[in-house]
Fold each of these.
Amino acid sequence: MADTKPGAAVIPAPGQPRPSRHEDVYFSASDGLRLHAADYGRHDPATRGRLPVVCLPGLTRNTRDFHDLALILSRDDKAPRRVVSFDYRGRGRSGWDKDPSRYTIIVEAEDVLSGMAALGLEHAIFIGTSRGGLIMHVLAAMRPAVMTAGVLNDIGPVIEGAGLAQIKAYLSRTPRPKTWEEAAQILAGAHSKSFPALTDADWADFARAIYVEKAGKLVPDYDPALLDGLKGVDLNTPLPTLWPQFEGLGTMPLMALRGEHSTLLSDQTLTEMKTRVPLLQTVTIPGHGHAPILHLSGIPQILRDFFASVDKQRRH
């Protein structure tokens, strides 16, 4: 059962804008850990009857990555949708696990299912960024019926070792900022070559999604023990692939987004994905790396068009 932070959502009067706020929802994992989700449009009658959208973030990321996209989708004039994004255990507003060995994709997939049950979501369109897309691969084998359609954001069944090495190096070596301005500058310095499309304002927003202020200091918004799992990864040997699970995802409407400068999802893998699942829709996002920021560069309209095609297929 879920509990919500009161007063976060408002039902609009006819002709008024959709709600600009969301509900912070808390629920229990199967092991009792308290987990968090952000729920947009839950009480808006205009979202009823449409497939909701479930958003799954990357390795160390949180629900704030999807906030702007969720506002766009839940307040859409023509087809507003309920949008739910999840903080995995050890991230954002979810509790930290006392046993870091449980920071795994399988456990996190189970947590997503617990959250969907608590929120009354039987099935949804899924958007998975990076690790979130890997969780979708696991759900394809574990509980495929919960996914009516899916969007893989810069992730596929093959993870490039070079891209994972970059993520590992960034997470372990990035200096800690003292101010929000410095945080934006650090992020731009580390990623601007991969994300030339971003403006100074975008980097400032990016910082607010990644860092949180605790005891007067800016720190990444995740349990540091989460990175223990990366220490044992041998990047000199090929990483395991997930082709059977990907082909399981291919039984539903599926889209893959790739950042133009991504080092985690290669052009070769994207081509092979299209070969194995011919109905896969693929879009390369110019000016973005790993992973495209979903409320920028026209991506919301790409997603809305895909969702509309899913709705049309369901009606027929």
Amino acid sequence: MTTGFTLASQSAARKAILKGAGVAFDAESPRVDEAAIKTRLLTDGASPLQVACALAEAKAVEVSARTSGLVLGADQTLDLDGRLFDKPVSLDDLQAQLRELRGREHVLHAALAAARGGQVVWRYEGRAVLAVRSFSDAFLEDYLTAEGEMAQACVGGYRLEGLGAQLFERIEGDYFTILGLPLLPVLDLLRREGLAAA
């Protein structure tokens, strides 16, 4: 039985956000080559925000072309002074990334796109600014030991809903945007589409 609303993602965090809000949805993995799209965009001089928007749209369009109903695609990028950061691929990469973020501000862009029948019908861009504190090397070592592989699954190398919260001195922006799925605009969209109680 389909719900009429599909999330074009298997992200545990995104699924948990929707489930927590009582949203009925199906989840499908998008069949897009994210790395190839990202490489092409960056080669063409795209900004981290433009990359997030393009990937969200590509996911939504691909899944909506083979499923019925409304499909939501989402993507998130980390922007440090205009440079895009990817998910760390190893613990060494994670450590290097967190050292580079230490004592500095970065931006998380969370892009959403909804599509139906292979056509984008709605877009949203969320933004959060995060100021990383000047944590000690000892804290970083303890953090890597405790979070390790879980942190590697996140674009910034941290889970705000976990120990990652201790990395920050200030955050400006919506909590759900930081988690990668700005929830309130999605709920508004679902109500307007008749897929959630008004």
Amino acid sequence: MNDANYSLVLFTVLAQGSVGMIVTSYLCFRLAGRGEMPHVRREWIMAGVLLLAGLTASLFHIGHPFGAAAALTHGATSWLSREVIAVCLFGALTAYTIVAMRKSLPASLMLGTAILGVVSLVVSGAAYAPPSLPALNNASPIALFLLTAASIGLASKSFFGPKDDDGFVAQWLIFVLIASIAVRIILPSVWSSGGAVMMKTGQAWFASPVFWLHIVLLAAPIPFLLKSKALKPWMFVAVLAAELLGRLTFFVGTAATYQNIGHLF
């Protein structure tokens, strides 16, 4: 794996984590029925920092970083360009909403930002589902990216009060982590019974120690959450590490049709 792919791992996971934090923050704000809460703005600032770090990392995927603006010019034909446009719009709206939060919590802006974040995830999933990757040329990248956003977003609540939300968030985090583990086991199982390239992908995922370590890290918070329903900062660290390792498997272990040109699989 080259440095460019490492930058993609950081970009996708951090950007999706940012979306998850903002969606989780908005939902907790609305469902809790509270008024203005100072911790919400801090939460959004942290989400903005994650997104900025992800966008910075993405520049190292480009051969000529100073020409990155050219990626915005092919939105009509390229999913990668649409991804860049969607993420940049999401970032701009996030920044605007954070500024607006200095006086009050603008619910409509928060909702619009959360929706745009989810749209950016769907567009990103489409960008990483090319025909050359049969295992991913479907809705699985979108599902994986949404699960990444949800797990990081929910786990991040361990850093932001009020603690009264812990029980509600913990229940959803347990559900998302179990769903994440299930999807990550089911997908390579299905691929292993598919065509030659898909089978190679499934086998590579299951044979990877990184894949199994990421499963273990995803599962680590579950027994503690079931017992106490209390969110702890180490859970966010475990989930973030798990998602980074899982994304490594996503980029490294997925076989492409062009890899064995001239050879039998």
